């Protein structure tokens, strides 16, 4: 991944209502995450999809800071594979040595408002036409 792609991923992740999947190209293992902006704060709650209902079966992972550090809280499970994968990924966003080993996929929803993306330009950007103007 080049710097522009990394910047786009960071922008998408911090949109406020981002949902995305990180896939290992080596093993095919993937995890789907949801990031929600903390009201009145500068961080993001991180959750991982862990069940069949892709709208409700999310489990808490931790807090992502504005400078892309994953913070362990009392409710975090740092020994889980999904926690380790997310921690590794955000570390790669600030020091990309092995980022070529993963694929980043957004879920087709605007990272800012959460609405379904329908135009090719919006799908590529990860933001709807009104939300991208707010960036």
Question: What features would you describe in this structure?
Answer:
The chain is an alpha+beta fold. The protein has four helices and six strands. The protein has helices at residues 3-13, 81-94, 120-125, 129-133; strands at 17-24, 30-37, 44-49, 58-64, 70-71, 102-106. Strands 5-4-3-2-1-6 form a six-stranded antiparallel sheet. A hairpin with a 6-residue loop joins strand 2 and strand 3 (44-49). It starts with a helix and ends with a helix. The mean pLDDT is 93.
Short note summarizing the structure:
The chain has 135 residues and is an alpha+beta fold.
What is the strand and helix layout of this fold?
Elements (H helix, E strand, L loop, with lengths): L2 H11 L3 E8 L5 E8 L6 E6 L8 E7 L5 E2 L9 H14 L7 E5 L13 H6 L3 H5 L2
Antiparallel strand pairs: 1-2, 1-6, 2-3, 3-4, 4-5
Radius of gyration: 14 Å
Helix content, binned percent: 25-40%
Compressed to H and E, one letter per element, the order equals: HEEEEEHEHH
What spatial order of strands do you see in the largest sheet?
Answer: 5-4-3-2-1-6
The average pLDDT is 93
Ends distance:
22 Å
Give the number of DSSP strands.
Answer: 6
Number of helices: 4
């Amino acid at each position: 991944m080049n710097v522009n792609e990394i910047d786009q991923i960071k922008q998408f992740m911090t949109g406020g209502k981002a949902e995305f999947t990180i896939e290992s190209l080596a093993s095919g293992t993937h995890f789907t995450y949801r990031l929600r902006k903390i009201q009145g704060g500068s961080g993001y709650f991180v959750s991982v999809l862990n069940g069949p209902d892709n709208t409700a079966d999310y489990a808490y992972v931790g807090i992502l800071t504005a400078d892309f550090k994953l913070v362990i809280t009392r409710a975090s499970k740092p020994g889980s594979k999904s926690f380790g994968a997310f921690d590794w990924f955000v570390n790669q966003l600030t020091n990309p040595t092995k980022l070529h080993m993963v694929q980043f996929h957004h879920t087709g929803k605007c990272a800012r408002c959460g609405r379904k993306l329908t135009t090719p330009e919006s799908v590529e950007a990860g933001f709807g036409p009104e939300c991208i103007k707010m960036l």
